Amino acid sequence: ANKYYLIGTIRRDGSSKFGPNNAYGTFPALSAGWRLSEEGFMSGVTWLDDFKIRGGWGITGNQSIPDGRVFNQYGGSTGTTFYDIGGSNTSATPGYRLTRVGNEDLKWEENVSTNIGLDAALFDGKLTLVFDWYQREVDDLLYAPPVPATGGNADAPIVNIASMKNTGFDFSIGYQGTMGSEGTWGIDLNGGHYKNEIVKI
Fold first, then answer.
1. Quick check: 77 pLDDT over 80?
2. Residues 134, 157: Cα–Cα separation, whole Å
3. Could you tell me the pTM of the whole model?
4. Whole-angstrom Cα Rg for the chain
5. Confidence at 90, pLDDT banded by 50, 70, 90
6. How many angstroms separate the CA atoms of 101 and 144, rounded?
7. Cα angle value 169/174/179 (rounded, 5°)
């Protein structure tokens, strides 16, 4: 009866950027809404045309890393790795070295999002209000930390090493008025606040 809303999804994603033990991730999501303005106990509130509260929770996966980072990679040239087979410094033969350290334990970075919001229309729809509060927590952040110089020249492995949290809110206030018999005008105010915090690294 346009009063209650419920939506649920579940994703099963796979990526060849991770090893065979961690290639797949399961990511659920759930959202719900309640339009209070349609309830009987709100019938006497004549100045409130529409009022809905809503919330959502869900997990998404991130695989934004280069391909092949689960394996050690090798390369070389006569400028970086070579062998002077003949001993005369004129017949250098290219060799190979470890150029990038792999990590077979790489897995999906998970982003857990939560939001609570409301939508309202007042005074015959002339005044509208929208407000959202949200929080996003990132676990097992994909990151390539620096390695000591004693570790050689190979690129550092990507690891699931960090956690991060984002919190904030957004709001919008709008007003629609009339001008004469046919003209209309409107004004909108939008704002928000955002905070990013590194929880663990």
1. no
2. 32
3. 0.75
4. 28
5. low
6. 10
7. 170
